Amino acid sequence: MKLLCNEGCQKEFEVNEIKSNGVEKLPANVDRYYIECPNCGKEYTSYFLDETMREMQMEIRHLKNKQNLKIKQKNRMFKLTNKLAAMNAYYMNVYQELVEKSGQ
Questions:
Q1: What percent of the chain is modeled with pLDDT above 70?
Q2: Distance from CA of residue 92 to its chain's centroid?
Q3: CA triplet 21, 64, 74: central angle to 5 degrees?
Q4: Residue 70 carries which DSSP code?
Q5: pLDDT digit string (tens) for 20-61?
Q6: Which of 55, 72, 85, 99 sits a CA distance of 20 to 30 A from 47?
Q7: How far is it, in rounded angstroms, from Cα 8 to Cα 34?
């Protein structure tokens, strides 16, 4: 996938996968996964994960691998997916506040 470094050098770059070296450890055992522009080094957050979110992801994967999900299972998967998105948005806001306070 091609991305534009719109907050840095304004050049396009290719991203094939999020590498594990693009992980920043944050307080409360939260990991911030990011991609980095190879031209200027500007970091772009992809997502956040904590232990609860990892467990939710595992449950979603388990449900997705099942065949012929029941309505209750589909609803559970939908709720988990929405909760993950909400948690990620929450961590993004917290992270942005931390960055602003530190003056970066």
A1: 94
A2: 9
A3: 125
A4: -
A5: 557 888 888 999 998 889 899 898 888 999 999 999 999 999
A6: 72
A7: 15
Q: Which amino acid is at 65?
A: N
The b/e string for 38-57 (b: 16+ C-beta within 10 A; e otherwise) is eeeebeebebbbeeebeebe
CA 36 to chain centre: 14
Cα separation, 63 vs 102, whole angstroms: 41
DSSP state for residue 12 in the 8-state scheme: E
Whole-prediction pTM: 0.78
What tokens appear for 95 in the block? 């992270």
> What residue spans of the chain are helical by DSSP H?
51-65, 71-102
Sheet holding 30-36, edge to edge: 23-26, 30-36, 43-49
